[in-house]
Amino acid sequence: MMLMTDNSNSANKGDSAIALLEPPVSTELADVEHQVRLLKVMKSLYQVDQQAKFLHLQAETNSLLEQLQALKGQRDSSI
Fold it and tell me: For helices 27-45 and 48-78, what crossing angle results, to 10°?
């Protein structure tokens, strides 16, 4: 939690401190942020063809993971 002191001449002079709550970060948002950071690093380290190969493998890995999770869900529902 962040705490900010309000030293301005606003209408709420009685409030000397305003607590700002940060919303929880969802796992999807964290994953996207992680991928953005990863892509920035990749751009500085790898050539374009290597980036394309990596992105293709990443997409294939995600697809295989989704298939595995679907099969697991089918197996669990049949038990």
Answer: 150
